[in-house]
Amino acid sequence: xxxxIVQGGQxxxxxxxxxxxxxxxxxxxxxCLLTDQTVTLRxxxxxxxVRVMCELLGTLGVSVTRNRDVVTLxxxxxxxxxxxxxxxxxxxxxxxxxxxxxxxxxxxxLAPPGGDVIGRRRLDAHLxxxxxxxAELAVRPDGFQLTTSGLRPADLLLDEASVTATENLVMxxxxxxxxxxxxxxxxxxxxxxxxxxxxxxxxxxxxxxxxRLVVKGCSELGGADVKLGADYIEAASYLAAAAVTGGSLxxxxxxxxxVHRVLHRSFDRLGAGWEVDGRDWVYTARERLxxxxxxxxxxPKIEDGIWPATPSDLMSLLIVVATRAExxxxxxxxxxxxxxxxxxxxxxxxxxxVQCDPHRVLVNGPSPLSGSHQTSPDIRAGMxxxxxxxxxxxxxxxxxAHMIDRGYQQMDLRLRELGARIEREGE
Length: 427
Fold this sequence. Notes:
By secondary structure, the chain is of the alpha/beta class. A hairpin with a 5-residue loop joins strand 11 and strand 12. The strands form six sheets. Strands 17, 18, 19, 20 and 21 form a five-stranded mixed sheet that branches. Strands 22-23-1-24 form a four-stranded mixed sheet. It has a four-stranded mixed sheet with strand order 2-14-16-15, covered by helices on one side. The protein folds into two domains: 162 residues, UDP-n-acetylglucosamine1-carboxyvinyl-transferase, Chain; 206 residues, Enolpyruvate transferase domain (UDP-n-acetylglucosamine1-carboxyvinyl-transferase, Chain).
């Protein structure tokens, strides 16, 4: 098992260009199954989850080639019976094969998807939605089976605004002739990216960016050549690294007004906001960070939720930033019941945190952190521990480097280019 060794106390400074959005890459790769024509995706991150998804597609018969950040896919022939259960269990994104395979081949057998252990992650919205479109569902101990003699248009009301369920259903709808309506759809930027790919392939979609999608599907989708949007969670991670180490950072080619407003709102509450310069975000070093109280001096709160609320993927990073800010602030994690379990690791490094319950923590800052030996439990908590180590006094060791590799491309190399003292040890 690989691990990271971090010497804290070095400011993160320079220019950083984020990769393409990880959460858009996985469904957009899966969408290649909807056509026998070539699909070219640009700005694709070279991360573990993407590599596993490409391996999964390869087992199905898809031709996959990669040249730097450009991935070219051709699903001229697809055999759903060759799907690898072992690969499916490695990533949450394997569930995104259900809609495209069902639309293309009429059947799919999927092992339970893997991914981060951050609490229960339901599949009900996926499976019930596909069933309403005409699929027959059989749930088995080793996974589930979906079959259909032909999907049909449907008016769908999702029981939760699930990102991956929305992506699965909109992909299936795009390849099914007729008018489909999806209510309570997720509207995150990566969902919008998937919709725009499907439009480039020939589907007609209205309501992109809202919670009501109307999809006019067609019997034959074509190829496409599209560029992924910037990974704004990765951008925020490096901005957070600059904030906790007292550095300055320019994040290039990332600006989308709606994304800026959502992310900036939470960072600004911690005194760590940035300026917009064209398509760049510019964070300038400051003497101190300070929590902005609510009116009347009340303790403020940051809580996550469906877009455009604060993304759940940001919560772990923001908690570390809060340990460096003067004042008190409550974090309320509402999306996943196990997202906060890693906070005890931060407490052991010296953070002044009261863990109220599995969903809420109160951070009192600033609190000096000391180097420690920790283990990364998931992608975002792992990156949060790296941020804590960068700002801590002394040496830290972060085990389970592969967890962070799943979501961040060459994180140690890119941090070293910005001045961090971080090394990777082991394989």
